[in-house]
Amino acid sequence: MGKGFFQVPKAINEPIKSYAPGSPERALVLEQYKAYYNDQIDIPMYIGPDEVRTGNTKPMSPPHDHQHIVGTYHTATKKNIQDAIDNCLTAREEWARVSWEQRASIFLKAADLIAGPYRSKINAATMIAQSKNIHQAEIDAACELIDFLRFNVEYMSQIYAEQPASAAGIWNRVEYRPLEGFVYAITPFNFTAIAGNLPASAALMGNVVVWKPSDSQIFSAKVIVDIFKEAGIPDGVINVVYGDPVMITDTVLASPDFAGIHFTGSTHVFKSLWKQIGTNIDTYKTYPRIVGETGGKDFILAHPTANTKQVATAISRGAFEFQGQKCSAASRVYLPKSTSKQILDLVKADIDSFNKPGSPEDMSNFITAVIHEGSFDKLAKYIDQAKKDTQAEIVAGGNYDKTKGYFIEPTVIVTTDPKYTTMETELFGPVVTVYIYDDAEWSKTLELIDTTSEYALTGAVLSKDRYAIEEATKALQNCAGNFYINDKPTGAVVGQQPFGGARASGTNDKAGSAQNLLRWVSPRLIKETFVTPENYRYPFLG
Ligand code: NAD
């Protein structure tokens, strides 16, 4: 702290732009999209002050046009990773010492750069890299990342203000030191905001970071790097590397200075990281912080009293937006027999009204491509299996085509087996499975939901009956870290619905909250005594 108790600007959620026909933002983002699409970018790694090009490159293609190449990125050698760690440790001394308000300024500036001059760039890059339609790109890459950056600054100032009481004659104070070492951030493909937030939240609290983005997101990660550089993050504070995740992780986790992991991605990868950290525990100077937000098998449960249009809309949006590739996407649905036909007819009508899956450049497309061939093939396999299985019936969609892009039709499977494989397994695509329960079996269905999946990320209950809502809220208390009443289970907003789940869905450290930032500090308590005793004898000794 310098010479004042500074108050940070009050964080407010970034307003979402409409991109309606004729709007200036629509023209700007489409112009930027074309410019990126027709260019060839060569993306280096960023290690200390250097842009590192190994010459060992990989191409980048939009999922909706996989033969079109928009650039290449350079992949790391083991030595590059060691250099990234060394640069972290060199940068750490000054970064850990700098006043918090300087760090706050950098990240507030980054937020304003995204809100202004970089908005169309980060959105267009996300449309190309992850095949998001413009609304999905705007709420993620622009608004959510801005919100993470602004709210985290506010939470940081609240954490620093949290101080212990002091009895007469002493002064207790806590300083929130960054971790002694470096943080390893591993980010998923599906949210540009998460990619930016995982390294940024640790760096904001004074840490230095090795950041490994997903191969499928490097095109939009590059825009994040440009923004962080323009905002003034010093060299070496966030080092960005790409390539073989196993080699990179083995090298990083072998370092004695590894102090924490900030991961978002699939459950099996996180479990393997946790194991590896456990195996290496004697290597480390401190106990590493392990923060991971992972998979989900998110549910929608409709009570017989629920409004059928509201349930159908929760399914159409919750299961199919961004092709079901949100960790919070609804993928198992429980409908009462009495209203199931009406709800499914409404969902089918919604799906019929979507255009065929296509490019996000055509803004009439609600559904675009899934992220890569591996994902496409996996989804196609489950759809084919459902076509064969007697306990499953595809009632909408069920077609797919990867000739030009990785396009999967929004698909609804109805199953008679509540433990059918697609009721339990995270598919991460536009495929939702519905189980129809007897209206009289409401309470039993709650138990079924609780015991069907290893995950506990998001879930939604829709009902007009307040007793039923209360029963579901209690019975499902361990089924979801984010629980929605009369809403879809997606669309958490930073500052309003801190996000994360338990069980196999993660450590539930709630991205976009003070709880998460507390994982990146190691508090030091300082007790100062004003009149220090000079005699050991207490009065009882006489
Ligand atoms: P993924 O697990 O395939 O990849 C995530 C990251 O881990 C990538 O950077 C990848 O390169 C890296 N990785 C892969 N194998 C690795 C290994 N062996 N060692 C170290 N790193 C490795 O996940 P994805 O496909 O990018 O993202 C989708 C998954 O993320 C889904 O399971 C989804 O539910 C989850 N997710 C969860 C949340 C949440 O908040 N709970 C948010 C977004 C995504």
Features:
single chain; 542 residues; Aldehyde Dehydrogenase, Chain A, domain 1; Aldehyde Dehydrogenase, Chain A, domain 2; 7-stranded mixed β-sheet; 23 strands; binds nicotinamide-adenine-dinucleotide; L-glutamate gamma-semialdehyde dehydrogenase activity; NAD; EC 1.2.1.88; oxidoreductase; Proline_metab_enzyme
Kindly name the structural category.
alpha/beta
N→C terminal distance: 46 Å
> Helical residue percent?
25-40%
**CATH class of the largest domain, anyone?**
Alpha Beta
Parts with pLDDT < 50 across at least 5 consecutive residues = none
Please state the second-level CATH architecture of the largest domain: 3-Layer(aba) Sandwich
Average predicted confidence as pLDDT = 98
Into how many domains do the coordinates divide?
Answer: 2
Q: Sketch the major β-sheet.
A: 7 strands, mixed
Percent in strands = 15-25%
| Rg, Å, rounded | 25 Å
Under CATH, the topology of the largest domain can be stated as Aldehyde Dehydrogenase, Chain A, domain 1
Q: CATH homologous superfamily of the largest domain, by name? A: Aldehyde Dehydrogenase, Chain A, domain 1
Number of helices: 16
Q: For the largest beta sheet, what order do the strands appear in spatially?
A: 14-17-18-13-12-20-21
Explain the overall architecture.
With 542 residues, the chain is α/β, with parallel strands linked by helices. The protein has 2 domains: 24-60 and 72-294 and 506-526, Aldehyde Dehydrogenase, Chain A, domain 1 (3-Layer(aba) Sandwich), CATH 3.40.605; 298-485, 3-Layer(aba) Sandwich (Aldehyde Dehydrogenase, Chain A, domain 2), CATH 3.40.309. The protein is 40% helix and 20% strand. It is built from 16 helices and 23 strands. The strands form 7 sheets. A 7-stranded mixed β-sheet has the order 14-17-18-13-12-20-21, sandwiched between helices. Strands 9-8-7-10-11 form a 5-stranded parallel β-sheet, sandwiched between helices. Strands 1-5-4 form a 3-stranded mixed β-sheet, covered by helices on one side. Strand 12, helix 10 (308-320) and strand 13 (330-336) form a beta-alpha-beta unit. The longest helix is centred in the first third of the chain and has 28 residues, at 134-161. It is globular, with a radius of gyration of 25 Å. The model has no long low-confidence stretch (mean pLDDT 98). Nicotinamide-adenine-dinucleotide binds next to helix 8 and helix 9. Residues 186-191, 194, 212, 214-215, 245-246, 249, 264-266, 269, 272, 293-296, 327, 426, 428, 457, 499-501, 505-506 line the site of nicotinamide-adenine-dinucleotide.
